[in-house]
Amino acid sequence: RRIRNFLLQKGYTTSTVSHTIEETPAGINVTFNINEGNSSIIREITFTGNTIASNRAIKNKLALKEIGLFKDGAYQPSTLEQDKQTIVKYYHERGYADAAVIDVKIDSVTNEEKQRDELTILFVIQEGAQYTYSGIRISGNEVFSESELLRNQKLKSGQIFNETKFQEDISSITNVYYENGYMSNEFYPVPVKDADRHEISYDLTIREHTRSHIENIIIKGNTKTKE
Description:
By secondary structure, this protein is an alpha/beta fold. The protein is built from five helices and eight strands.
């Protein structure tokens, strides 16, 4: 598995690794049989459907890189999935709550001289409309008031919606409970989109449970120091 992962990191996506075991009087001999195949390098990364962001702006956010003077351009399928999420996050932080990568097209050309497959990767993006944040409605909170829960709110009503800031606000709300001993509460944020006005708000339902208390503090392994 480690050999296979090493080869994948170097762009050998079609490589295979097997092994044989031979018992001898001196012990066991293990032979790893490696078939590298052609390496896969990225010749070009391009995009379609992006109108509010340039190819360069999006490309700079990606972990996959085109081959260049200081970049090996190795293609890794797992990193491709990561980059799809990176593109979606880029748009969600700028108010495009419906943005998605609807397809990724990969064209491969074999370079016989260099014994490698050269890839062109095309991300097909659906941007959608830009949304304004119109606030959050909280229900089920009895222990703390809405003003107490929203004291450290970063995303304000009327601002361009930012998914990352909103998630930080949700964490801030949950921390108010956790820092006061309410460890088993449940939180259910539900988005409400107004497609006509291009506004997005959230309904947050909180299920409060009993407060947690410390019964005992148990220390083990202290043979030289008293509790």
